[in-house]
Structures are given as structure tokens and as C-alpha cells.
Amino acid sequence: MKNIRNFCIIAHIDHGKSTLADRMLEITGTIKKSDHGQVLDKLDLEQERGITIKLTPARMQWKGYELNLIDTPGHVDFQYEVSRSLSGVEGVVLLVDASQGIQAQTLSTLYMALDYNLEIIPVLNKVDLPAADPERVGKELENLIGVDQNDIIKISAKTGENVELVLDSIIDKILSPDVFLDIYKDMYYHKIAPEKIKDDNNITRALIFDSVFDRYKGVVAYIKVLSGSIKVGDHIKLSHTKIGLTPTEVGHFAPDYEKDKEIREGQIGYILTGQKSVRDAKIGDTIINIQDDKLKIKDYDLLFDNKKIPLKDLAIPGFKRIKPFVYSGVYPLNTNDYEKLRDSFEKLTLNDSAIEYEYENSLALGNGFRAGFLGTLHMDIIRQRLEREYGIETIFTVPNVIYLVKLKDLTLEKVKTGNNILEIVKSGYHKFVIDDFDERDSNLSDAEIADKYLEQLKYWMIIRSGSEMPEPGKIELIWEPISEVEIVGPQDYSGNIMDLAQNHRGVLKGMEYIDNDRVLRRYRIPLAEIIVDFYDILKSTTKGFATMNYDFKGYEQNDLARVDILVNNERIEAFSLVTHKDKAYNLGKSIVSKLKEHIPKHLFAVPIQAAIGTRIIARETIPAMRKDVIAKCYGGDVTRKRKLLAKQKEGKKKMKQMGSVNVPNDIFIKMVSRN
Predict the structure, then answer these.
(1) Sorted alphabetically, which PROSITE patterns does this protein's record hold (predicted)?
(2) Is 19 within any annotated ligand binding site?
(3) pTM (2 decimals)?
(4) Is 564 a known ligand-binding residue?
(5) Tens digit of pLDDT for each residue in 617-630?
């Protein structure tokens, strides 16, 4: 283990992270030089968009040392994936574009790496570009992490200039896994784990930092072995999902799968689990294997000194369920493609455990799904994959967040049956609702938690879309998710940034100067305010210079309301949304005005209204399509014309009572889908 170095590269999108990984693989002889760039970005979308969507490991040999690299995504939507990667390494290469400087999302990941006590190796990339300013960016890094400018390595990942210095620095500065574990042992054990177990080498513990589905191999778990070893045929347990596995193959990444006899302590590799869904090998779970006859596992408890110790107490801390933050309705453009869409979602979830979906029906759009995503980029990627890989054109409704609602009574059907309680517990939102939730109860089953905290949970509901929101008279209070947003931008655009944040209900929590020109601002903003168009407006108002990062921070009560859109006095569920009451009027007025432009005229007048409960807050009317019924009257008495007009008026009145308004699908593409 002394000659093993585990590291990952953290950088903002398009700062050259995957290009640097390519050069490292070529210099170490792991791969041959190729015209095909971004070897570790294997998805077509990654190649086209120039971003890393899935993390990818690779093992290299350099000067007698084994170097294990994890190439991680840089976008905030995949932050949890990055955090698990950081748990599996002892150091990071901080890669910064010498022309752009450090960005908000890089800062967030950097602070996370410092929390993990990882060694930071600062590297400036693209120093060969005419716009590069390594002196200025070097001072930024000096101010942020306190490094000497002379210790910053200046490279060009594209040409390979000074990349060997980075490899040498990884060997010299990053600790070997055994030394790192000895110094920071408490990071990898729960506080309640017995001291004897911490020093027992007969227990194998490994972290699952990613899992993917391979059509030929099944579920492949990417692991970092903390102690012990794993080989084919071992009977291993997963501490959180409580599943037993027997690996059918183990190996490392070169960067493709390469078989080994075993994966040893300190190494990064993979195991074939034999499972059919990545939900059975969740990111962040811990593999446990007992290699001592004196120790036994019974019913997911470890028998140690005649005491039962739950396997969760041996788990590597930090595991949490991946909860989608953004929800959207997904409907096939062709209503006959519903079955095909359902099958496609099933296949996608084999490879992406972060996606949640459930059946949903809309009067306007037909059969579809309410799907959950990590963020708007994640949602856009899934939309494109549905179109490219499965050939389905879809309509995605405007993304929304999850609200927690407390009811005044138990009259709603869902609350009467108690289904709301188990749903809250399974989703993990009970920790926000329950006062002083005891973390030790996390070891209980979902049913046991629901039973213990029944009185506190029975009035609460999870709301995933505006159409699910109960009537105002039934609601006692509404909680909405809150995010902490970091914005890095030039001082010249401070006014624009401040106006944007205030218009989206932002509260300034602090600011600091990165250098003479750029300022880092921290805001507390409701998550619903930033998931649709906040980033686009930020980019346009700052000429593209500002960057942002956001992190979910919990729930807060606020004065919110459901705004319904009625067309010809019928509620269109797909348009129902939740917003702050101060914004409801302007938002409702905007929607009905746009609908008036897009809905075609009918033979009768069509009212379009925005309402909160029974109160109408905005209205537009599409005038009736006019037919000239008196065109055939070439003369005669005026009473003849009046009779024809009166007959037409009576017919329109009857038609309005019996007729229905057709809202074409293309209106939902224009009005609802913002992708």
C-alpha cells in the first residue's frame, strides 16, 4: 500500500479536466496516443457537449507507483457523485483555467475536499493561450488556499507541457492510503463503532463510490477498499441496503475493465455484483466481509464479544439516499408511445439510480410520468437520451421542486389511509418534519420510524407538482426547499447580480473579494427560484462572466399558493404551479397572456383565467371566430338581418355551454417545456 496514490481532478466545466486525464494516461503508457479526445468521457453526449456526466476511474503506473485516478463531473447536478469520489481518494489536483480563474462550482468542490483533509495540488491549465494570465490567477489561488505561487504547476493539458511534473507531485505530496487512514481514522468509522473493530484487520470494508449497469456484465460496482481484500467468491454484505452479494469478477480500470485475482487494501477497482439494477448497489454504501472465524454476521448484525453490533455501525460514514430535487411531468409527444416511454424509463434507471418516476395522467397530455432529477442539466440529459437512444419525442413540463405541506385535518383520502406517512419516511423527508429527530433511529426500518413518529407525521404530505397541492382551506402551512447559492462575478456587474438575486427572493449572507475585480457572494434563495431560468439570466446580465453553484440546505415555511390556469372554466393540470403569493398576480397575468396568443380561436369566446382557490387573479378572453351570417342578405328590411344575428348569438350561447376547447400539444411545447 506504500506505493499506491489515489487522487481525483476537480475543475469547472471546460477547464481541461478530461484533457489532462488523457495526457496522464498517454504519458504513463496506459493508453496509446489517439486522435479521439476525452478517452474517459465515453457517452456520446459527453463528447458532444464537452462535459463529464459520469465519473470514470483509471489506473496508471508511474515510476514504480500505482496511481488511481477518478475523473469526476464538474457540474453541480452531480455534486453527490463528486463527494463520494472524494471519500475514495487521499488527494486532489485542483485544475484552474489560467485565462478564466477559479469558478463558483470549483470553489464548492474545493471546500469539500478540504473538509475531507485531502492534499490539494494546485495546477494552472491553458497557460499557452494568448488570454492566459497565470500571475493573476495564481494570486487568486494564493488567497483562497494559502499556497505559495512558486508551488503552483503551470501546464498545457492539450500539448502535454509539464504534465509529468503533476504526476511527480502526486507521488511526492499525496499520502499513501495506509498513512492517511492512520491519521484520519475517525473519518471512516461511526463514533459508536467499538475501538477493537477499528484496529481489526480481519474485517474487509470497501466504499461503493459509483455503480453502473453493463448489458453484458450486469451491475458493476466501483469500489475503494479501505481494509482487507475482495476476491471472486467472497460472501459480502451491503450495510445499508442489506443485500448479500457474491462477486463473479473483480478487477481494475485500465481504463477499460481488467480482471484481477483480488482488490487489495487501498486499491480502487470494480466488482461484478450479479445484480440487475444499480438500486441494489447504491452509491455511498459500504461492502463488509468478515474473514475471521471468531466473528460472525447474523441478520445483518455482527456478533462481537457476545454483543450484537449493527452492520451500519461499521459502514463508512456519509451514506445518504440520493434525493431528486427537481420534478417534471414527462409525456410522449405521440400518445401511442406511452408503453415505449415506460420501458425506456425502466432501462434508464438500470444505469442511473438518481431517477425517480411514477405514473401520472393529465387531461390535456394523456398518460405520462412524474419524474425526479438531480437538477435541470440532469433533466436535459435524460430528455436527450430518451430521444437519441430510444427514439421518443417527449414533452417535459416546467420543472418544480418538492414541497412539504401540513394539513389542518385528516379529511383528504391519502391522509386518511396513512399512505402519506410511509411516503415521507421512504423519501427521507421525515428528518425535516420531526422535531429533534434522533439519528440513532436511522437504524430502524421505514415502518418502525413511521410507527414511532406517527403523531408528528400524520398531517404532513409530500407535494411533487402544483396539481397535487390541496385546496387553500385545507392547508395549515407550506414548507419550501431552500438553497445556498454562491455567485462569482466581476465587480462591474455587482448591481445586476444583486437585482437578480433580490428578484428571486434572495437574501445576502456574505461576500468576499477573490481579487481586485471578482467578488464571491453567498445568497440564501428558495430552490424553486433558481431551477428554471436563474442561471440563463445570470449569464446574460453579466455577459457570461459570472458563475454559480447551489447546494440544498433544508426547508423553511413561506407564504405560498397554488395558481391554477382555467381554459373555458376547466382547470388544466399541466399548468398548475406553486409560487409565492407576492409573485402570483404577475405570473398568472403572464401565463394567461401567452395562452391567449397560442390557443386558436373557436366559434365561441374562450375565457382564460388564473386563479388561487376560487379567487380569479388574472383573465384574458379569446374572441369568437366571426362568421358573416348576413352576407347572403342583399337587401330587404333590417329586421331580417337582426333575426339572423340573434339566431347566431343564441347558437353561440348554446355552443359555449356544450362545446369544449381543444388545447393542442404544440402549445405545451411552447408554454410548458423550456428545454
Answers:
(1) G_TR_1 (PS00301), G_TR_2 (PS51722)
(2) yes
(3) 0.75
(4) no
(5) 999 998 877 666 56
